[in-house]
Design goal:
Layout: E1 3-10, E2 13-18, H1 24-27, E3 33-37, E4 42-43, E5 45-51, E6 57-62, E7 72-76, E8 91-95, E9 106-112, E10 122-127, E11 133-134, E12 139-144, E13 147-152, E14 160-161, E15 166-170, H2 173-179, E16 189-191, E17 202-208, E18 214-221, E19 237-239, E20 251-253, E21 279-283, E22 299-303, E23 310-316, E24 322-331, E25 335-337
Length: 338
């Protein structure tokens, strides 16, 4: 059985989730689990409680309380299923005791409100705080001209975001992955039952904690998209600066060079708070594509000072003759290579 994830339920209880049913008798041995905090100190397990009725999880009861948002690693020496099959190599996971979110800790990071045919809407949220946040019971509210609808992000089980971690909420994770196979991260896609339809023109997104405290609010509008787009279908709006305000000026169309959306992955248009100057490098400057193993290809690396650039890359030979067009009027991410 593979260890899927670890979650701190309370300061003294850690739940481990596995991919198969466990032998509940064998799993109750504390010697099979090792805990260590970020300072390298081993944590003592007083007992292990298998979680019924399917026994795909166990609770580690600790002798001392965890500190909030202090990273802890857990290693499983061996896990045995009901048929007696034991796990192979040592499996591990990291976790921390989550803390309550403060307004502005959890923000809207990306939104696809006009999907392609057969696609799915998504709203990506980012934990931009230094705290671990448990999204269980948190809510996403959608306001549009036809009314207001909302969902609970994770109603049944804990879902913890580490600092800097993000997750894309959607109605159909499989469809989203199929439409963005190279720019999505399946591990960071969360299918949410009854995910609301988004207005294709404009709407408002609100994030609330389990106490109904507003954490973030973003008003999206199709006018925020790059005007040069031939179609807005399948193109998301991405947050530019993680630390910036949730306003129109801090969102931009995802780059066409990465597939027009990045669900579960860092935004193509992201910049740090200070911004960056432009930089273009070609390495090596001279290349000979003759398959002799010596400088057969080159790489154009770039960094842009702001989102919204459209670029073309054309290759000429030593005589100035056109050889190939690599990009033609393609919207570019703020950093990348060709």
């Amino acid at each position: 059985p593979a260890l899927l994830r670890a979650v701190a339920l309370t300061p003294t209880a850690v739940r481990l989730y596995f991919g198969e049913k466990l032998d509940s008798v064998a799993a109750a041995n504390p010697a099979l689990y090792r805990l260590q905090n970020s300072a390298g100190t081993a944590l003592t397990i007083s007992r292990v409680a298998p979680v019924g009725p399917d026994f795909r999880a166990i609770d580690l009861i600790l002798s001392a309380a965890l500190l909030p948002s202090q990273a802890v690693s857990v290693a499983v020496v061996r896990a045995t299923d009901c048929a007696g099959n034991a796990s192979g190599a040592l499996s591990s996971a990291s976790f921390a005791l989550p803390e309550p979110a403060q307004p502005g800790d959890l923000v809207v990071n990306e939104v696809l409100f006009y999907h392609r045919s057969g696609g799915a809407y998504f709203v990506e949220v980012l934990n931009r705080s230094a705290r671990y946040l448990n999204l269980q019971g948190y809510q996403l509210s959608v306001q549009k001209t036809s009314g207001t609808s909302g969902i609970v992000i994770s109603s049944g089980v804990p879902y913890v975001l580490a600092p800097g971690q993000l997750v894309a909420l959607t109605s159909d994770a499989n469809s989203l992955q199929a439409q963005y196979p190279t720019s999505s991260d399946p591990a960071a896609l969360l299918a949410v039952p009854s995910f609301p339809a988004l207005d294709n023109s404009a709407g408002s997104l609100y994030l609330y904690d389990q106490r109904n405290t507003e954490l973030d609010h973003y008003d999206y509008d199709k006018s925020q998209h790059l005007p040069l787009l031939s179609t807005q279908a399948g193109v998301s709006l991405e947050r530019i600066r993680a630390s910036g305000a949730s306003t129109a000026s801090n969102f931009h169309s995802a780059a066409g060079a990465v597939g027009y959306a990045t669900p579960g992955r860092p935004n193509s248009q992201s910049q740090d708070a200070s911004g960056n100057g432009q930089d273009w490098t070609v390495l090596p400057e001279l290349f000979t594509p003759d398959d002799d193993g010596q400088q057969d290809f080159t790489t154009l690396n770039y960094q842009l000072d702001q989102p919204g650039y459209v670029g073309s890359v054309t290759v000429y030979d030593a005589l100035g003759q056109l050889t190939r067009r690599l990009l033609r009027n393609e919207s570019l991410p703020t950093t990348g290579f060709v």
